[in-house]
What we know:
Layout: E1 9-13, H1 18-29, E2 33-38, H2 41-53, E3 58-62, H3 68-82, E4 87-90, E5 97-98, H4 105-133, E6 136-141, E7 154-155, H5 156-174, E8 179-186, H6 192-198, H7 204-214, H8 223-234, E9 245-248
Parallel strand pairs: 1-2, 1-4, 2-3, 4-6, 6-8, 8-9
Antiparallel strand pairs: 5-7
Amino acid sequence: MAGRLQDKVALVTGAGRGIGAAIAWCFAREGAAVVIAEKDPETGAAMAERLQEQGARALFVEMDVTARRDAETAVAQALGAFGRLDTLVNNAGINVFHEPLETSEAEWRRCFAVDLDGVWHMCRAALPGMLEQGSGSIVNIASSHSSTIIPGTFPYPVAKHGLLGLTRSLGIEYAARGVRVNAIAPGYIDTSIARDYWATFPDPAAERARAEALHPPKRIGRPEEVAMTAVFLASDEAPFINAACIAIDGGRSVVYHD
């Protein structure tokens, strides 16, 4: 039985670890050729090698999403290796949390360079080929911060709100030409980024427990739970889902808070 992404080609940014690695793994398991677009050459190359050892078609491309030329090169390498690009997953992102008036110009720019400009660089590079072939799916990894504001996390939610605007705008612009653009908004997911954040508190275990308690299932999410939603959006099972954002937060975003 063929996989849900059989013969498709996907490029996943930030795929060397965490959610990106889980997405790459699940895409390969479902039959896709996967381009691991990663800034860290060690984790990126290791991920591609692991996929190849499992019989998957995989390619590692070292790149930085903040550089438009890197984005163009990554897409060109994907096309050169596999002949087409069916799915782009914009997963690369960073947390930048500050009190607004204490946010430096450098920190503002750093946040937007990765979390918004980087997504646009990748979309801009991938869209021409998708439009030429008349099909494609772009999946942007947003955040629960895309629809809520938590004090002390500025300017991250500003960038993530912008990412939803980009998702919706591109989705509407190119829907009639066969390209769908959607977003996934994870809540707390058990990744190294979350663990590094908890480590900034005096009691990391207590901070993790607090995060788990915020979610109705009383746990945080797993990377593969985000990955399988990305598989669905990239597959032929979601042809009429466009310009949408799917929350993966165990219901936290709809819980009443006084």
